Amino acid sequence: QVKFVESGGGLVQPGGSLRLSCVASGFPFSSVIMKWFRQAAGKEREFVAMISSSGVILNYRDSVKGRFTVSRDNAKNTLYLQMNSLKTEDTAVYYCNAGSLIEPWGQGTQVTVSS
């Protein structure tokens, strides 16, 4: 059974940092591209970052380039997102998924950037 469990979110001041984690199970994690997404209140879910099965960073959305870093540990079936220099516009629920978008999605982890 496919499962995504995101964690690491919280309340942080502008300019602060957070590290998100996503533990995946139920599919061959080490063989697939993985992605981070986010959804702000009242908005559509949007792409944030993508990493190859071997750990090569493939893409970021423009607004997070230079601030966010995606990584993975295939031995632990875990995807990470290091977020630095956070801005208020980064406030959202963050989700992970495989490149092919497997159902069901996880519950996500809330990131709130506010002073």
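(the above was protein one; protein two follows)
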Amino acid sequence: QVRLVESGGGSVQAGGSLRLSCAVSGYTYNRYCMGWFRQAPGKEREEVARIDSNDNTRYADSVKGRFTISKDRAKHISYLQMDALKIEDTAMYYCAAGAWCRFGDWGQGTQVTVSS
């Protein structure tokens, strides 16, 4: 059974940094796509970043230059390094995984709160 577990969320002041981690287990193959999504209260879920099986990355315009997605293939962990955080980055962050970036498996989420 596939399981994704996020960690690393918390509270930080604007301009600060956090690193989210997503540990993946249960995949029988090593080539899958990882993504990070977020949802703020009253807003729709949005994709923040993704990294595919060839390590190609894609970012939402709102986080380009501030967030970096990476993965440790051997450890089956995806990371989201978030720098220069803004108040508007406050949201529940979810990691997701799936073959061909069809995100069918999701974590439980980790809260990120950015204050002034």
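Reviewer note on protein two: The mean pLDDT is 94.
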